[in-house]
Prior knowledge:
The protein has five helices and no strands. The protein is mostly helical. Helix 1 packs antiparallel against helix 3, helix 1 runs parallel beside helix 4 and helix 3 runs antiparallel to helix 4.
Amino acid sequence: MPSSILARMSQLMRANINALLDQAEDPQKMLDQLVRDFDSNIADAEQAVAQTVGNLRLLEDDLREAQQAQQEWGSKAKAASDKATELRAQGQSAEADRFDELAKVALRRQISFEQSVQTMQQQVQQQTQLTDQLKDGLNKLRTKREDLVQKRDELVSRAKMAQAQLQVQQAVRDVSVMDPSSELNHYEEAIRRQEAQARGMAEVSASSLEDQFAQLDDDTTDAEVDARLAELKGGSSSSAAVASSPPPPPPTAG
């Protein structure tokens, strides 16, 4: 199990996220799925690390017990050998031989535990290396998962901003297509034409009135001319009548 976990962790950490994003039809869904994959592998890795650490602690306990047994059987072998030496010095050879045999049995047990200690030490070393690899991989997996989540959130935020910008640009384009300013210009032009027509009518009305007053002035002038002409003519008739009549008689002396 730990080896398969390490393989999966290594595969995830080697994953080229940018390449995956380029190939994905829906990058956000792909990132969400990748985060779920990381979460699942992190959970499995945590379980594997806990199991590996537990096995390591058991091996360490067994190693300490084997080392303790090794020392105890060594002490027993020494005690049996010392007793055999003491009994032989006392001339009790048979009893001494019996304790020597006990010493040999203890030494065999000591050697057996020495071999167990060597084997367990190798196992503890291997288990420690595996535990360190799993812990290191787990930490890297957590770090990459945090980076992935941060990048996902950043990309999602950028995608939302880009979508908002597209909507704004679309709205601006729609407004440009409708071009309300052209409608206003058309309305303004109609008002200008109405204003010009009103000024034209005013000018027409003013011209007609001026013509009437001009005609009135002309009529007045003509009447004045006729009156003066009649006066002139009347004045000339009076002068001719005075010239044709005889002069008055001179006054008589009284």
